[in-house]
Design brief:
Elements: H1 9-39, H2 46-75, H3 82-115, H4 121-124, H5 128-146, E1 156-159, E2 164-167, H6 174-218, H7 233-281, H8 288-312, H9 314-331
Antiparallel strand pairs: 1-2
Helix pairs in contact: 1-2, 1-8, 1-9, 2-3, 2-5, 2-8, 3-5, 3-6, 3-7, 5-6, 7-8, 8-9
Transmembrane segments: 12-37, 49-75, 87-106, 131-151, 178-203, 258-278, 290-311
Keywords: Cell membrane, G-protein coupled receptor, Membrane, Receptor, Transducer, Transmembrane, Transmembrane helix
InterPro entries: GPCR_Rhodpsn (IPR000276), GPCR_Rhodpsn_7TM (IPR017452)
Length: 332
């Protein structure tokens, strides 16, 4: 039995309210991240270049896509023409592709940072210029795969549940099928596979490191802690912590931040992805409210990201606090 695609008034009010809050939070938070990273010399480091890339991809949704979804939900129809509906679908695809690529690059970088000795890290990690080139390449990659439908490679379709356009995953014809297959492989499967591989290797490094630490502490007899004429193992341990402990703590904190970003992305996109796959096989059995809730949740992700790394990163938190203080102090 075919279900009505129209949302009830209470549902629409909740959806629009959440989207309005998300839109304001997305625009304000990501602009603050962009301004701080571009203007502050102390934030010109690889980690913050990644945040810059994520903020730019999130800002695309906050500025261009969320306002159009709000209008579509209120009017129960797409407010602009077919061309802009297609462009909306391309921008959504661009944002998610770029987020996946950036998270993949961060994951590989975390593995690189943890797998290299601290004393050699300065020589083995990428230069700032190379980091910038890698991020630019990820954007070119994302734009290429997202813009296929604009050049008749693949197509978009109107979603009667959300009154917006989206890629036509089940489209007929060779162009549609090859585009869907290539997009699934090169923009999703390979990056996600690389991400999983990087974190599996990070897990193995962490487990091996823990075993070495445990073995070192348990194998040292109490009477051997200090031998006359030899160095003090406790002092050596303190010196080691002084030289490498801070870097390790920073690496661990950065790793947890990336895992939070990946977890947030996965949680926010899961419902909409599952609903989309469900519709491919049973188009008339998917509750419209599930599809709309999934879309709202995906758009909330671009508001969550900047708060994660602004709260987790002390430098970023300090710079944003100073910016907010300057704005409000100037107005009072």
């Amino acid at each position: 039995m075919e279900q009505s695609s129209e949302a009830s008034l209470p549902e629409m009010i909740i959806e629009v309210t959440v989207l309005l809050i998300s839109c304001c939070g997305t625009v304000l938070a990501n602009i603050m991240v962009l301004v701080n990273v571009t203007m502050k010399e102390k934030l010109h480091a690889p980690t913050y270049f990644y945040y810059l890339s994520l903020a730019a991809s999130d800002l695309i949704l906050g500025v261009f896509c969320i306002p159009l979804v709000i209008a579509a939900f209120i009017l129960h129809s797409w407010p602009l023409g077919d061309t802009l509906c297609q462009l909306y679908a391309v921008l959504i695809s661009l944002s998610v592709n770029c987020s996946i690529m950036t998270l993949t690059i961060i994951s590989v970088d975390r593995y690189n940072a943890l797998s290299k000795p601290v004393e050699n890290r300065a020589h083995l990690t990428f230069t700032k210029r190379r980091y910038k080139l890698i991020i630019i390449a990820s954007w070119v990659h994302s734009i290429f795969w997202a813009s296929g439908p604009l050049f008749k490679w693949g197509s978009t379709k109107f979603d009667e549940f959300t009154h917006t356009c989206k890629p036509d995953w089940g489209g007929e014809g060779l162009a549609n099928k090859t585009y869907a297959l290539c997009l699934a492989i090169f923009a999703f499967a390979i990056p996600v596979g690389a991400m999983i591989c990087a974190y599996y290797k990070i897990y193995r490094i962490a487990r091996a490191s823990k075993r070495r630490r445990d073995a070192a502490y348990t194998s040292l007899p109490p009477d051997k802690l200090k031998v006359p004429g030899e160095s003090d193992p406790l002092k050596e341990d303190a010196a080691t912590k002084h030289t490498s402990g801070t870097a390790t703590a920073e690496d661990n904190k950065a790793l947890k931040t990336v895992l939070l970003l990946i977890g947030s992305f996965t949680a926010c996109w899961s419902l909409y992805t599952l609903a989309t796959v469900w519709k491919l096989f049973a188009p008339n059995s998917v509750p419209p409210s599930i599809v709309r809730a999934g879309l709202v949740l995906t758009l909330c992700n671009c508001c969550i990201d900047p708060f994660i790394y602004s709260i987790r990163d002390e430098k970023m938190k300090r710079e944003i606090k100073e910016m907010i203080c300057r704005v409000f102090c100037r107005n009072t």
